[in-house]
Automatic annotation (TrEMBL):
<keyword id="KW-0808">Transferase</keyword>
<keyword id="KW-0489">Methyltransferase</keyword>
<comment type="similarity">
    <text>Belongs to the class I-like SAM-binding methyltransferase superfamily. TRM11 methyltransferase family.</text>
</comment>
<keyword id="KW-0694">RNA-binding</keyword>
<dbReference type="InterPro" id="IPR059073">
    <property type="entry name" value="TRMT11_N"/>
</dbReference>
<dbReference type="GO" id="GO:0043527">
    <property type="term" value="C:tRNA methyltransferase complex"/>
</dbReference>
<keyword id="KW-0963">Cytoplasm</keyword>
<feature type="domain" description="Ribosomal RNA large subunit methyltransferase K/L-like methyltransferase">
    <location>
        <begin position="185"/>
        <end position="303"/>
    </location>
</feature>
<dbReference type="GO" id="GO:0005737">
    <property type="term" value="C:cytoplasm"/>
</dbReference>
<protein>
    <recommendedName>
        <fullName>tRNA (guanine(10)-N(2))-methyltransferase</fullName>
        <ecNumber>2.1.1.214</ecNumber>
    </recommendedName>
</protein>
<dbReference type="Pfam" id="PF25904">
    <property type="entry name" value="Tmrp11_N"/>
</dbReference>
<keyword id="KW-0949">S-adenosyl-L-methionine</keyword>
<keyword id="KW-0820">tRNA-binding</keyword>
<dbReference type="InterPro" id="IPR029063">
    <property type="entry name" value="SAM-dependent_MTases_sf"/>
</dbReference>
<feature type="domain" description="tRNA (guanine(10)-N(2))-methyltransferase TRMT11 N-terminal">
    <location>
        <begin position="3"/>
        <end position="175"/>
    </location>
</feature>
<dbReference type="InterPro" id="IPR000241">
    <property type="entry name" value="RlmKL-like_Mtase"/>
</dbReference>
<dbReference type="GO" id="GO:0160102">
    <property type="term" value="F:tRNA (guanine(10)-N2)-methyltransferase activity"/>
</dbReference>
Length: 462
């Protein structure tokens, strides 16, 4: 299988493999790589892909991938690269023999002066290339990646690169979408609006694509509706707080955002309801659920219920004849997540994904805190670290109808920073409810996250 080098953006490092695997599913591309080869301090990953065309497909909508080259030679010295390039079969260069070209020396973790780059490029003059050098619009670019960070202490960067890659440049991704959906340019937003880069990444991980139906049950100002619909999905949002949906007046609302981005044909609308009391027909309909449940800090969750401190009057009408809104009570995060998981297990299509944020306190986090369900397989657990607290992007996939319920061992597989490991847990510690919910710990840390957050007294949250 041909080898390629993916160059990632050095942003949201724990999310890179989750997005890459999701892009491969969306584009129907088979990947062959060892996830341990992607080092946190380096942007490069060598991947096997069957064709150049399929390699380019991965960049159609990638956010965390910057670019990709075909790998012709890899070594830990430039001399080794030159030797391997000299011994490459002639057919490697045949398609480019008469093409205009240029060389690009791309250095990560250090700098290389222009004269030194020119000197290195001139050392490739033995290559059988007959075309003209064109620095502005070449037909082919030959790239040399030089990585100073791989296996190195960032405080002690070596004088020479520790690994190099050489090959023809294939394509760049469309990270410009981050600017397109930048919050600063958005017609309507609020204090809990998710930033554009993470919204786009989450929509990719949720496998949002043409023809799919995506629900955000805590829609707020609709960030996930925009990015999922951008990728072709039909989206619909729900929220118990109708004020967020209706907006601030002056026609600034979710609908105006849909108009701004020309997505009115895909954003189907919004509904005022909570995840436990909703109008959806009981059928497996949604292909993905993408959301950021309220943590109780910037915005607290509520659900429809009778407030015992203020019992409702018998009349359902206001004095002016309009219907009264139902009463609501506080909705603890632990209960929110329990209902969310039960909803996903019932209403997602087989193979559908639940993608949501889980806040955690770094010091007390335990993988057993993550809510589980016997019909939902854990796919990824990606941490965004804020120091004393973090939020984790939890990615779960509903089992196919023919698949049996997850057994104990499968339920205990947690994915931490892209590396799978099984956490020891006695079977007696696990309880499975009638609805399929699995309890691994009686008092998960996120149950009282609001109190924990204000006790640590720092960070940024919803």
């Amino acid at each position: 299988m041909p080898k390629f080098v993916i160059c990632f953006a050095q942003a949201h490092l724990n999310f890179r493999l989750a997005e890459l695997r999701s892009l491969a599913i969306i584009e129907n591309v088979t990947l062959d790589f060892d996830q341990k080869d992607l080092l946190e301090q380096s942007p490069f990953l060598v991947v096997g892909i069957d064709t150049v065309e399929n390699a380019k497909k991965l960049l159609n909508r990638a956010i965390l991938i910057k670019e990709i080259i075909q790998l012709w030679a890899a070594d830990d010295t430039l001399e080794g690269i030159l030797l391997k390039a000299k011994n490459l079969p002639a057919e490697y260069f045949a398609p480019y023999r008469t093409s205009s070209f240029k060389f690009d020396i791309s250095v990560f973790g250090s700098t290389l002066a222009i004269p030194d780059q020119v000197e290195q490029i001139n050392r490739f003059k033995f290559l059988p290339l007959e075309g003209k050098i064109d620095l502005k619009k070449p037909e082919i670019v030959f790239t040399v990646y030089q990585d100073f960070y791989a296996n190195a202490n960032p405080k002690d960067i070596p004088d020479k690169p520790v690994r190099l890659f050489f090959g023809p440049f294939l394509a760049t991704s469309n990270r410009g979408l981050i600017q397109t959906y930048d919050l600063k340019k958005r017609d309507y937003l609020g204090t809990t609006s998710m930033d554009a880069e993470l919204s786009l990444i989450m929509s990719n991980i949720a496998l949002a694509r043409p023809g799919s139906f995506v629900l955000d049950p805590f829609v707020g100002t609709g960030s996930f509706l925009l990015t999922s619909s951008h990728f072709g999905a039909f989206t619909l949002g729900a929220d118990i707080d109708g004020r967020q949906i209706r907006g601030k007046g002056n026609n600034k609302n979710i609908e105006s955002n849909a108009v701004q981005y020309d997505l009115t044909n895909r954003i189907l609308g919004t509904v005022v309801c909570d995840i436990a009391h909703h109008p959806w027909r009981e059928t497996e309909f949604w292909d993905a659920i993408v959301c950021d449940p309220p943590y109780g800090v910037r915005a607290g969750a509520k659900k429809i219920a009778v407030n015992p401190k203020s019992l409702p009057k018998t009349s359902v009408l206001n004095p002016d004849g309009t219907y009264k809104l139902p009463q609501t009570i506080p909705y603890e995060l632990d209960d929110v997540l329990t209902d969310l998981l039960s909803f996903a297990a019932k209403y997602l299509t087989p193979g559908g994904r639940l993608v949501y944020w889980l806040p955690t306190v770094t010091e007390t986090y335990d993988p057993k805190d993550v809510p589980r369900h016997k019909r939902m397989r854990m796919i990824d657990n990606c941490e965004q670290d804020f120091g004393k607290w973090a939020r984790r992007l939890i990615v779960m996939e509903k089992l196919q109808q023919h698949e049996p319920d997850l057994d104990l061992d499968a339920l205990l597989v947690e994915i931490e920073k892209g590396i799978q490991g099984v956490n020891a847990l006695d079977e007696q510690d696990m309880r499975v409810g009638d609805d399929g919910l699995v309890t691994l710990i009686d008092n998960p840390a996120h149950a009282k996250f609001r109190n924990h957050y204000f006790n640590i007294g720092e960070g940024e949250t919803q």
